[in-house]
Amino acid sequence: MAIKFHESTKEFHLYNEQISYIIRVLENGQLGHVYYGKHITDKEDFGYLIEYARRDMAPYPFEGNSTFSLEHLKQEYPTFGSGDTRYPAFELEREDGSRTVDFKYKKHEIFKGKKDIEGLPAVYVESEEEADTLEIVLEDKLIHTQILLSYTIFKDIPVITKHVRFSCEHSEGITLLNCMSGCLDLPDKEYEMVELAGTWSRERHPHTRELNYGVQSVYSMRGCSSHQFNPFLMLKRKNADEFSGEVLGFSLVYSGDFLAQVEVDNFDVTRVVLGIHPNEFRWELKQGESFQTPEMVMVYSENGMNGMSQVYHELYRTRLARGTWRDKERPILINNWEATYFDFNEEKILDIAKKAKDIGVELFVLDDGWFGKRNWDNCSLGDWYPNLEKLPNGITGLAKKIEEMGMKFGLWFEPEMTNKDSDLYREHPDWLLADTRRQYCHSRNQYVLDFSKKEVVDHIHAQMRAILKDAPVSYVKWDMNRAFSEVFSNGNGRSWQGKVRHKYILGVYDLYERLTGEFPEILFESCASGGARFDPGMLYYAPQAWTSDNTDAIDRIKIQYGTSYVYPISSIGSHVSAAPNHQVFRDTPLETRANVAFFGTFGYELDITKLPEDEIEKMQEQISFMKEHRKLIQQGVFTRLESPFEGNNSAWQVASEKKDEVLMAYFRLLEPAQGKFERIYLKGLEETAKYSVQECFGAHMDCGVHYGDELMYAGLSVSDCSAGIPMLAREQQGDYFSRLFYLKKVEE
Ligand code: DGJ
Question: What is the CATH number of the domain that holds 435?
Answer without folding.
Answer: 3.20.20.70
